[in-house]
């Protein structure tokens, strides 16, 4: 579904729009409420790059440390900073269990050993200790597909070029195996709010459509298809619903040939590995 498709569902609200700059990322403790607590289990070792470890990291850690683990406004770089990289798995588990309250990091001991092990395993992937992926196709053909036939760039950004409705994919393929990237293209998560168009009707009859970027008990931050951010108070919302059709196409299995999917996966992996990240000051 493209921005022009979405626009047909609602009347554009142009009068007295609520505009605001990006709301700061949610606190780690707030993000924890979206993760199910695990019951006590015997220690298990998750294989690097698994969905479980990645989903936990993105739900619990990315709000402070960034999706790539290289740091954010509220958390330090834990992917390349040598003080962190050199820690043993046991030491990392101790940090996760006890947290760092003085630095604003809550404890995660209630998740259980199995889930904490998955987090550590995925962190090791972000630190470059995962298995080296073999490119399944031709990245040059994949680039043409990304910005052409597959229409990925309608919603996703790659190294500064593309749309804004979807996530930035510049580093997406750096930590995931080809099979998982391919699965994500063919079977996007239907429960992911970022892949749904939200339609919000206010009590004053204004209607807004777009992607929810942030929300809490008091407000909703929505980015409309023209790029405008709207900061809406929950008390002013009369109705919020999600359109049934996901933003990301679900028919790639029929619109793209198997070889083209391989090319697209190769482009995502090779481009992500080529991204140069400037080293951060160890004292930051």
Question: Explain this structure to me?
Answer:
By secondary structure, the protein is an alpha+beta fold. The chain has helices spanning 3-7, 28-31, 51-60, 62-65, 82-85, 89-98, 113-129, 139-146, 178-186, 252-255, 258-274; strands spanning 157-158, 161-162, 198-202, 207-215, 219-224, 229-233, 237-242. The chain has a 5-stranded antiparallel beta sheet, with no helix packed on it. A two-stranded antiparallel sheet has the order 1-2. Strand 3 and strand 4 form a beta hairpin. Helix 3 (51-60) packs across helix 7, helix 6 packs across helix 7 (113-129) and helix 9 packs across helix 11 (258-274). It is flat and about 50 Å long. The model is unreliable at 9-49 and 276-280 (pLDDT under 50).
